[in-house]
Amino acid sequence: MLYVGPSLFGFLIGFILGTRIKEDEEVKFPISSYIVILIAAILMAWQLGPFPYYHDLPLASGFIAAFVGIILGRIIRG
User: Fold this and answer.
1) CB–CB of 69/10 below 8 Å?
2) If we measure between CA atoms, which residue out of 78, 61, 75 comes closest to residue 11?
3) Residue 75 and residue 24: Cα distance in Å, rounded?
4) Domain residues of the chain, as ranges?
5) Helix, strand or coil, per DSSP, at residue 20
6) Distance from C-alpha of 42 to C-alpha of 47, rounded to nearest angstrom
7) Which DSSP symbol is given to 17?
8) What mean pLDDT comes out for the span 43-70?
9) Helices 5-19 and 61-77 sit at what angle, rounded to 10 degrees?
């Protein structure tokens, strides 16, 4: 069974944080850096494991949703 609560909450918090990231002229990230960060986030979520008593995925779905929210918030409103 897929639990929507942690993923939705993680996405909302990530989206809010992503909208607050400001662009700096000195520090610019190419698309390859986002790919490396995504791979690192997936590895971290796998090491964290699912929330207690949740057995939908072998990784922390809220953590991945928060990362996706940060990236989408950055793209849409950043």
Assistant:
1) yes
2) 61
3) 14
4) 14-21+28-77
5) coil
6) 9
7) H
8) 82
9) 30
